Amino acid sequence: MQVSGQKIVVLGTGGTIAGTSALAGDNIGYTAAQVGVEQLLAAAPGLALAASGALLQAEQVAQIDSKDMDTAVWQALALRCAHHLQNPAVQGVVITHGTDTLEETAWFLHEALDTRSKPVVLTCAMRPATALTPDGPQNLLDAMAVATTPGARGVLLVAAGEIHGARQIQKVHPYRVNAFSSGEAGPLGWVEEGTARLAQNWPLALDAKALSAIKSIANIQIWPRVEIVVSHAGATGALVDALVRDGVQGLVVACTGNGTIHHALEAALLRAQDVGVRVVRATRCPEGQVLPKPGDALPDSRGLSPVKARISLMLDLLQH
Ligand code: SIN
Question: Which of 1, 85, 104, 309 has the most CB atoms lying inside 10 A of its own CB?
Answer without folding.
Answer: 309
